# Entry
Amino acid sequence: MTAESATPVRGRTSDPEAARIRLLTAIEAVIVPVGAVALAAALFSVFLLTLGKSPATFFELLWRGGFGTAFSWQNTLIRTAPLIFTALCVAIPARLGLMVIGGEGALVIGGFAAAVVALPVMGVLPAWIVTPLMFVAAALAGAVWIGFVGWLRHVRAVNETIASLLMFYIAVAILNFFVEGPLRSPADPNKPSTTPLDPGLMVGSIPGMDVHWGLVVGVVVAILAHLLMSRTTFGFAARVTGGNVRAARAQGLPVGRLMVAACALAGATAGVAGYFEVAAVLGKANASLIAGYGFTGILVSFLARHNPLAIPPVAVLFGGLAAAGGLIQRRMGLPDASVQVLQGLIFLIILVSETIYGRVPFLTAEKRR
Amino acid sequence: MSEFLLSRRTLLKSAAAGVVAAPFAGPLERAAAAGLTIGIIYVGPRDDFGWNQAHAVAAVELKKVPGVTVVEEENVPETIAVQKTMESMIKLDGAKLIFATSFGYFDPHMIEMAKKYPDVEFRHAIGLWQKDKHPMNAGSYYAYLHQAHYVDGIAAGLSTKTNKLGFIAAKPISSVLQNINSFTMGVKKVNPAATVQVIFTGDWALPVREAEAANALADAGCDVVTCHVDSPKVVVETAEKRGIMCCGHNASQASLAPKGFITGAEYKWATIYKNFAELLTKGQKLPNFERGGYDKDYVQNTAFGAAASEAARKAATAAIADLKANKPYVAGELKDNKGAVVVPAGKVVDNYDVFLETTNYLVEGVVGSIN
# Structure
C-alpha cells in the first residue's frame, strides 16, 4: 500500500487524468502523516490532562521553544543536521525493503574514523587536505560498517535489522577501547577522548547563523538521494527490488550487489553525521558521540515514509521537539520522558496510518471518478 | 469507518487551531525574577539513586534559599544540545549561574558558552579548570568523595571476615581510581592482610554487568563490596541478596540493604550550591577552582548500617574527625600495585594537592589492572 502502487501511470505524461491522480496521490501522502501527527498530539493531550497539565501550555511551549523565535529556530536547525543524515541511513535501504536500524553505529564509527585519520597528519598537512580526508574517512567507515550488514544479508541471509542493531554495540566497544586505551589524550583525565583537533580543522557556522554547515550538506545529500532513487537506473532497480525481490531476480537484477551498495550508501550518510559531530561540535572523538541521533533518525525516516525529500522537513520537526523539550521541562515541571512519550505516540500512529493509504474516502472516490 | 474518520478530523481541526493560535499566546521571555536564577543540567534522570540524584537533592535544598530560582533540565546529552540548553536558560530564564554536572559538558560545550556569555557564571562538577586556558567566568567545583570512601574502607576493613573485599568500578578514569585507592588505603590501614579485588564494567550504567560483577565477587569469597558506578542500586541489592556486606556511593542506599549495609560515601553538593548562590547574591566573585572534602562539609558518610561492628564505627568516626580537621591521609611510602613508588617515603600528600586528581594508578593492595 505505498503511494506508488496507487499510481497507475509513472513517468512524464501529458495525460490530464494521470496528472490528476498524481496530484491526489501527493495530497494523500501529505494529509495522512500530518493527520497522524495531529492524532498523536490529540492523544498526548489526553495523557497530559490525566497528569493535570495543560495541553495548551505544552503545545505553546513546543511551538515557542522549537520555532517561535530566531533563537528557537537555530536551536532546532542545529539538531536537525545529524537527523537528516541518520534518517537517510534508514530511508535508502528501506527502498529495497531492508530495515537498517543501526545508523547510530555507523555515526559512531564515522566520527571515530574522522578523528583518527586527522591525528597523524594534523599540523603536518594543510587543513584543505585534512578536512576532505576526514570527511571521506567518515563516509568510508560508515559505508563499510553498514555495507557489511548488507553483505551479511546477501551472502548469509542474516537479518539486517538485528545485525545492524548488534553492530551498534560493537561500534561503541571499539570506540571505548581506543578512546580509553591507545588513543587516549592525556589532556583530560576524567573524560577519555582523542587528542583535540586543531581549531583550523573545525567546521564553521553558516554566515549569520549559529548553525554549522552540516545542515546545508544534509539537505544537499537528501536531494541527491532523491535524484538517485527517482532518476537513475540504480534507483529504479532498487525500487523494483523493494517491491518484489523474486521478480527483481527473475528480471536479472543484481539484487545482492544492489543491497550491499544501498547499505554502503546509507552507512556513508550516517558516517558523515559522525564527521560533523566531531568536526563541528565536539572537536574530538569520545563517548559523547553516542547521543541517540541514529535512533531518532529511524523515526524521522518512517515519518517521511522513507522519502529523501521529505526527510529534511521531518527532521526539522523532530529537531524542534528536542529543542523545545528543555523549555517544557523547565516551565512545566514535566520529566524529559514526556517529550519521548509524544515521539513514541507519533511513531506508533504513523505505523498504523500506513494502512490508511488508498482508503481515505474522499480521495479514493475522486480517483475512481 | 467513515464516521470514525469524520470524528477524527474534527479532533484534528481543533488541535490544529490550537497550534496555530499558540504563537499569539504571550511573550516567551519569563519576566526576570527579582533574585538570582540558577540553571542546573543533568545528563541522566534526576531519580537514578546515584550521581544525578545527588545533584538533584542539592537542587531541592537550593530552591529553599530565599530569592533563588532554580531551573533544571535532565537527560541532556553531551552534544550541541547542552550548549543550547545553557543558552536557553540564559536567554529565556535569565540564568546568571549555570551548574553543568556531567564530565562531557566541560570541554568544549561549557567553555564555548562561557566565551559567548561573559556576564554569566559557569561552573562544572569535577572538570579541571585552568587559569591560563579557560575563561574567567568558568570554573569547576569538586567534592573529595574519596575521603568518604577512605572512611568506608576503614569501616569495611574492620568488618570483613574473609579479608577479601570487592570494588565494582565503571571506567578507569582519575576520579574512579582515586575512590578505589582511598577505599583500599582505608582497608589496609586497619587490616593490612586484606585485599581489594576491582572489576571494571566499562561504562557508567550497565546494570546487568554490575550484578554479574557483584555475584562474581561474592563467589570469589569477598564479603564486602562497594562500587563507583552511576547508580549503585544493583550492586547494593545484589550484595544483600547474596548475604554479604556492602558500602554505598554517591547517595544513600542504606534502605536497600537493611542487613548488610556498613556505611556509604555521599556527596553534599548542597553546601557548594548554597555557598555559590550566597556569594552571587552579595555581588561577590565566585571561586574558579573550588575543592573540598570533609573539612568544608562537601562530603559525608551515610549513617552506619546494621553490618557495621562497634570497632568499625569507632575507627570510622575517628577518621571522620581527622578529615574534618583537614588531616592528610595519603602519605609515603605509597606503592602502586605493580611495585612502583608513587609517593616517596616521608612525603605527605596534602588533601588539596591536585596530584590526587590526576590519579592514573591502583595502589598496592588492589587486585586488578587499569588496562
Notes: Chain B has two domains: 36-143, 145-266+301-367.
